[in-house]
Design a protein that fits this description.
By secondary structure, this protein is of the alpha+beta class. It has three domains: 84 residues, Rossmann fold; 112 residues, 2-Layer Sandwich (Dna Ligase, domain 1), CATH 3.30.1490.20; 113 residues, D-amino Acid Aminotransferase, Chain A, domain 1, CATH 3.30.470.20. The strands form four sheets. The protein has a five-stranded antiparallel β-sheet. Strand 12 and strand 13 form a beta hairpin. Helix 6 packs antiparallel against helix 7. The chain is globular and about 65 Å long.
Length: 354
């Protein structure tokens, strides 16, 4: 059986290349086309051939291009009735923390209480009596770049003042200091100085062209020493702990510090429930577990960054969990090569066969 696929790239030059690598390295008979959905001819190219599936890669740097991608993908999927991967609703939730907060509440999924204010006086009234610490988030921002933990009322007041101004809330565009391994990372960057300069210039321009302003997103602070990164792609489940760089009270996203403790069946059941509610196909579910063992969804991401060929290690063995009757079965193996795009592609081909 042969497959005809289209990859819908975004404005970032290399964001779609893992889809390309997955198609190139697959043993299946795949013919693929890359379509830049940000260009003026996008609709002619989408309708120019009869594709089995459109492989998406929504942007994660600016609300401007995120809105463009969501709008045009609506036409592709809902108007033209084309098949896309993952689902349209997963893409709407991705890198839109305002929409995510509404989605979680409407679906009765446990999550840190989140408030979104579009009126400054409303936000200031909340600041006067809100519990501290308080988490401020930008609508778009991967690897913790838009997350700020504020411990004083003065900090929160200043945050609101800046958000409701022309300046807006800045997002990190420079090196991520939470990751550590400074010497190794610097060495790798210096091996390709022109590429490094282009990378940070792009990050700088993205952060400046799209400041977070005229609204605020506040999230309840959940005290915990770690965050679960759980992943479901098709029938494959994985989970590991994301650890803070400075212990309790620090951010977990973007640190690259990992704990390979095995997940409980209760956690896997929780991930299955969250993703089944709306038929999600490809999700990283970031979960807080408080001191009492309560689980809260912090983030949902249909695409995520991971250079490891595995998302879980159990007793020293990489692998995955799959549903087995009313329980779970562990299967050993490296299932997350190519940033999990190889696994996604296998899932795509299974869906086409069905």
């Amino acid at each position: 059986m042969s497959y005809k696929l289209a990859i819908l790239k975004n404005e970032t030059p290399d964001a779609h290349l893992e889809w390309v690598a997955a198609c190139e390295e697959s043993e299946a008979d795949i013919r693929y086309t890359v379509i830049d959905i940000t260009r003026d001819d996008w609709l002619d190219r989408v309708t120019g051939d009869d594709y089995d599936m459109f492989l998406t890669r929504p942007p994660d740097e600016t609300a401007l291009f995120k809105q463009l991608y969501d709008e045009r993908l609506y036409i592709v999927h809902h108007v033209l009735k084309k098949k896309i991967y993952p689902t349209y609703e997963e893409i709407l939730v991705y890198e839109n923390k305002k929409f995510l907060s509404y989605w979680l509440k409407a679906n009765n999924i446990p999550h840190p209480r989140t408030r979104v204010f579009y009126h400054k006086e409303e936000a200031m009234a909340f600041v006067e009596q809100c519990p501290l610490p308080l988490v401020g988030k930008t609508a778009v921002g991967a690897a913790g770049s838009g997350v700020r933990i504020m411990k004083t009322r003065e900090e929160v007041t200043g945050y609101v003042d800046r958000a409701f101004s022309e300046k807006g809330i800045p997002r990190r565009w420079g090196p991520n200091v939470l990751k550590g391994n400074y010497a190794k990372r610097l060495f790798n960057r210096l091996k390709n100085i022109p590429g490094t300069l282009r990378y940070f210039q792009h990050k700088f321009q993205s952060s400046r062209m799209d400041p977070h302003r005229w609204f605020v997103i506040f999230q309840e602070y959940i005290p915990t020493d770690f965050e679960w990164r759980a992943v479901r792609i098709g029938d494959s489940y994985f989970a590991h702990k994301k650890l803070g760089r400075m212990g309790s009270g620090s951010k977990f996203s973007g640190t690259s510090r990992v704990g390979w403790d095995g997940p409980s069946e209760r956690l896997l059941d929780f991930v299955e429930t969250v993703t089944d509610i709306r038929g999600f196909l490809s999700q990283a579910v970031d979960i807080f577990e408080d001191k009492e063992g309560n689980l809260y969804v912090n983030e949902l991401q249909c695409f995520f960054g991971s250079k490891n060929p595995h998302q879980m290690i159990l007793d020293g063995t990489p692998g995955r969990y799959v549903r087995s009757g009313s329980g779970w079965k562990f299967e050993a193996g490296h299932f997350n090569s190519n940033n999990s795009y190889d696994l996604r592609l296998r899932h795509v081909l299974e869906l086409i066969k069905k």
